[in-house]
């Protein structure tokens, strides 16, 4: 599943982030292709902007994604809502669900396969992740534009930068989203940024498998420049 209904304001003005071009094709197309390269993936569901479903269908059709079952549904106002709507479009007999950021267009197929294999091996929730290269400081947020006091320096060896696709047993993912929806209806609910965070919030275990440095998220203009360079190198070396 690829939630792609957001605008991605940090990348600057223009089209929604998932539809920004990279090497002649939108980020979304690259992300769907990345999942489709795995033989373990039989269906890709894209949660598109509610007013842009027809546009996304046409876009995917025009970029030669034949050979895989790709379906487009209307997403929601939040990532959490888009994942829930996308999950409803996946056949109930599907036992493993991957959730992948449209803004991670260059994830290698070996990362996708590693996540799937870990869930098949018994894990209920799996995330790919990489060690941090930089020292991290925890700070006390202050006034905008003012220096922030450092609270402490976490042990970098215990920290990981999490990527996608994240993999789940289907019943677990459905359960945590149903709980979050029920709490939101009563004015509560967890403040998390990914599906693994929901699983953690409700008390189940998430495990980590090795990610890859090329599975970075395209968030800012400089990330797009880096993605262009990676894609150009791949095309020059192996006809990617």
TrEMBL record:
Keywords: Isoprene biosynthesis, Nucleotidyltransferase, Transferase. The record marks 10, 17 as: Transition state stabilizer. InterPro entries: IspD, IspD/TarI, IspD/TarI_cytidylyltransf_bact, ISPD_synthase_CS, Nucleotide-diphossugar_trans. It catalyses: 2-C-methyl-D-erythritol 4-phosphate + CTP + H(+) = 4-CDP-2-C-methyl-D-erythritol + diphosphate. Gene3D superfamilies: Spore Coat Polysaccharide Biosynthesis Protein SpsA, Chain A. The keyword Disulfide bond does not apply. GO terms for molecular function: 2-C-methyl-D-erythritol 4-phosphate cytidylyltransferase activity. The record marks 156, 217 as: Positions MEP for the nucleophilic attack. Its EC number is 2.7.7.60. It holds the Pfam family IspD. One of its GO terms (biological process) is isopentenyl diphosphate biosynthetic process, methylerythritol 4-phosphate pathway. Pathway: Isoprenoid biosynthesis; isopentenyl diphosphate biosynthesis via DXP pathway; isopentenyl diphosphate from 1-deoxy-D-xylulose 5-phosphate: step 2/6. SUPFAM superfamilies: Nucleotide-diphospho-sugar transferases. Transmembrane segments: none annotated. NCBIfam families: ispD. Catalyzes the formation of 4-diphosphocytidyl-2-C-methyl-D-erythritol from CTP and 2-C-methyl-D-erythritol 4-phosphate (MEP). PANTHER family: 2-C-METHYL-D-ERYTHRITOL 4-PHOSPHATE CYTIDYLYLTRANSFERASE, CHLOROPLASTIC (PTHR32125:SF4). Belongs to the IspD/TarI cytidylyltransferase family. IspD subfamily. This is 2-C-methyl-D-erythritol 4-phosphate cytidylyltransferase. It comes from Streptomyces tateyamensis.
């Amino acid at each position: 599943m690829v939630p792609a209904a957001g605008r991605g304001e940090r990348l600057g003005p223009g089209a929604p982030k998932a539809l920004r071009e990279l090497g002649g094709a939108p980020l979304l197309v690259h992300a769907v292709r990345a999942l489709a390269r795995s033989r373990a993936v039989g269906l890709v569901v894209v949660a598109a902007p509610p007013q842009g479903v027809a546009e996304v269908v046409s876009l995917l059709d025009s970029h030669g994604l034949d050979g895989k079952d790709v379906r487009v549904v209307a997403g929601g106002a939040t990532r959490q809502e888009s994942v829930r709507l996308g999950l409803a479009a996946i056949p109930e007999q599907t036992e493993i669900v991957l959730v992948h950021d449209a803004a991670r267009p260059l994830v290698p197929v070996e990362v996708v396969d590693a996540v799937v294999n870990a869930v098949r091996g018994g894990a209920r929730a799996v995330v790919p992740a990489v060690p941090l290269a930089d020292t991290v400081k925890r700070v006390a947020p202050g006034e905008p534009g003012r220096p922030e006091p450092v609270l402490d320096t976490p042990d970098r060896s215990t920290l990981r930068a999490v990527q996608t696709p994240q993999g789940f047993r289907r019943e677990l993912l459905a359960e945590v989203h149903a709980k979050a929806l029920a709490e939101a209806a009563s004015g509560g609910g967890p403040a998390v940024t990914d599906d693994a965070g929901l699983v953690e919030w409700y008390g189940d275990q998430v495990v980590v498998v090795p990610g890859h440095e090329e599975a970075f998220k395209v968030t800012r203009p400089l990330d797009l420049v880096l993605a262009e360079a990676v894609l150009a190198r791949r095309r020059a070396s192996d006809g990617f």
